[in-house]
């Protein structure tokens, strides 16, 4: 934490472009960070009280964490951005812009392997077409609900309406960008399968502490809204289904698990290591089981997963001539070309994992694995399985950088194992509980420091954030122009050789066209002596309902007595109707005599 705060030594925050230290300006929202720390400490203390809870109390507790998880990510993003959700949308280029422009999905799937090396975005070059087609499907759904598409698309467009990659997109296509925001809002659902997994191996209090820690997982705070969050949730749901299939003999869970992993393999090849985690963890949890049925179900579940994957890609080969193996080979060749390397990557991978999972839980998970090598309890076997998965991933050498994002799917389980280890080791003594509270507090602080200093990766939007308040210094007026724009006030200030006029427009609705303003300076005879025509400071296509747009104009002329203004269509010259009615639909603002 000290290294990140003081930026010394440099290697403490990584050694390539992914780990970029960003110190946000100390703004009015910084109070959210100490508030988050207080909430985390209070939730941790509540988690440790009592043994078994009632179902109602447990449901309320877990439901609160489901909501808290995305709120914490938004609070961290708010340290870097006036519009926190823009962090997810602006960093969502690639799959989104390519997907919504697809004309024929079948043709796109057939040509994807050949086009992979030519895509502009690196992620498109290395992944199956699933996420790209998801954006296409979302755009089609929004197109069937034009009202919803209009609202969602224009709000998303407002985050950075000057971005060149958004030019020419229709509102339904823009609205499809909400997928990344949906991933952010759904990230808290990981609390539910994580709690269900924990209750199989750990005490109620230890499990509750683990799911509180999940809400503060540093990787979620840094990589909010990225697709890797979906794979973390996939890994937890898959592991829960696998445990039900292997230990409980639930055939429906085995079928769902196979279908889930097969379908997800069409989205990303990341599913391969996710499947590795699930299979290793099922094997570890079933190790030393005396019942032959458990091992038999384990083998059948593994075979079912493999069969489902082969069935999906075999069907794609037969129907669309898509060779999944060739696609994977192209992906790996591109990965090798662009692979980044940490110095001593084998060690740095573990260092990355510790920082983005939480150093305290990482140490606890290693401690639990060390104990598991000597003991045979189910919880310790799970720790050994988790450590074995990490070792296999590291030995594969397929990841030599970006571990904090690419290995996010192993972090929630490791965090649960590590915090449960410390919680159970603390016991019931006051000294043990005090030590546990201190360790959990250190974890929370490290999570918030990591999220704050390493988050906010997307570039700043070119469009200024919307303003909502009118200044008290303005002269108020109340004119409506057309159906969606109002003039609420103005300010007049002397300027060298003229006058500086500041207009305050308010959007009453989403403007349906791009209008220009005419601003004419008149002398005492009514003649135009200066003018400033053109669109307002923020393009009207960007405006959202309720927004106040500050529009400054400089009029250079002597003896200005009146300013005449209004809005008009630049293509037809037709002025927007003003209400209350004024002559020639032009608003007259008097200029006080000097």
UniProtKB/TrEMBL annotation:
Protein known as: Glycosyltransferase RgtA/B/C/D-like domain-containing protein
Keyword Amino-acid biosynthesis: no
The organism's place on the tree of life at top rank: Bacteria
Annotated transmembrane regions: 30-48, 60-78, 174-197, 209-234, 254-287, 299-320, 350-371, 383-400, 406-424, 436-456
The entry's keywords: Membrane, Transmembrane, Transmembrane helix
């Amino acid at each position: 934490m000290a290294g990140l705060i003081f930026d010394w030594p440099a290697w403490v925050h990584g050694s390539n472009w992914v780990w970029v230290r960003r110190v946000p300006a100390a703004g009015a929202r910084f109070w959210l960070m100490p508030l988050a720390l207080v909430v985390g400490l209070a939730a941790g203390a509540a988690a440790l009280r009592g043994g078994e809870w009632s179902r109602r109390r447990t449901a309320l507790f877990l439901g609160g964490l489901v909501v808290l998880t995305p709120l914490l990510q938004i609070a961290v993003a708010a340290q870097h951005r006036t519009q926190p959700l823009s962090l997810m949308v602006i960093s969502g280029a690639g799959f989104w812009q390519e997907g919504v422009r697809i004309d024929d999905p079948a043709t796109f799937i057939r040509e994807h392997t050949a086009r992979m090396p030519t895509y502009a975005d690196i992620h498109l070059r290395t992944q199956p077409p699933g996420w790209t087609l998801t954006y296409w499907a979302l755009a089609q759904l929004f197109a069937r609900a034009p009202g919803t598409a209009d609202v969602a698309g224009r709000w998303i467009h407002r985050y950075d309406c000057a971005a060149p990659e958004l030019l020419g997109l229709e509102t339904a296509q823009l609205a499809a960008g909400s997928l990344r925001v949906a991933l952010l809002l759904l990230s808290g659902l990981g609390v539910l399968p994580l709690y269900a997994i924990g209750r199989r191996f750990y005490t109620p209090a230890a499990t509750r502490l683990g799911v509180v820690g999940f809400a503060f997982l540093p990787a979620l705070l840094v990589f909010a809204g990225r697709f890797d969050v979906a794979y973390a949730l996939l890994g937890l749901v898959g592991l829960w289904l696998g445990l039900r299939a292997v230990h409980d003999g639930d055939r429906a869970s085995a079928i769902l698990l196979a279908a889930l992993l097969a379908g997800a393999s069409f989205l990303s090849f990341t599913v391969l290591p996710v499947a590795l985690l699930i299979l290793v963890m099922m094997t570890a949890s079933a190790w030393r089981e005396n019942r032959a049925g458990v091992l038999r179900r384990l083998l059948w579940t593994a075979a079912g997963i493999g069969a489902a994957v082969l069935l999906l890609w075999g069907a794609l080969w037969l129907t669309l001539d898509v060779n999944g193996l060739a696609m994977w080979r192209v992906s790996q060749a591109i990965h090798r070309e662009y692979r980044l390397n940490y110095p001593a990557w084998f060690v740095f991978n573990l260092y990355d994992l510790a920082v983005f999972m939480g150093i305290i839980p990482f140490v606890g998970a290693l401690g639990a694995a060390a104990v598991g090598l000597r003991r045979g309890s189910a919880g310790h076997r799970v720790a050994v399985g988790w450590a074995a998965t990490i070792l296999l991933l590291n030995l594969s050498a397929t990841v030599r950088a970006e571990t904090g994002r690419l290995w996010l799917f192993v972090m929630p389980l490791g965090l649960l194992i590590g915090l449960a280890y410390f919680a159970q080791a603390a016991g019931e003594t006051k000294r043990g509980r005090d030590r546990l509270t201190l360790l959990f507090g250190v974890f929370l602080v490290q999570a918030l420091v990591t999220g704050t200093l390493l988050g906010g990766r997307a570039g700043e939007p070119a469009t200024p954030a919307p303003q909502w308040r009118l200044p008290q210094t303005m002269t108020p007026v109340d004119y409506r122009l057309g159906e969606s724009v109002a003039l609420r006030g103005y300010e007049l200030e002397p300027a060298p050789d003229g006058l500086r006029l500041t207009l305050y427009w308010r959007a009453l609705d989403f403007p349906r066209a791009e209008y220009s303003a005419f601003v004419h300076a008149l002398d005492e005879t009514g003649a135009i002596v200066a003018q400033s025509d053109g669109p307002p400071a923020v393009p009207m296509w960007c405006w959202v309902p309720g927004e106040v747009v500050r529009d400054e104009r400089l009029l250079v002329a002597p003896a200005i007595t009146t300013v005449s203004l209004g809005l008009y269509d630049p293509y037809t010259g037709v002025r927007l109707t003003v209400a209350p009615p004024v002559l020639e639909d032009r608003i007259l603002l008097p200029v006080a005599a000097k």
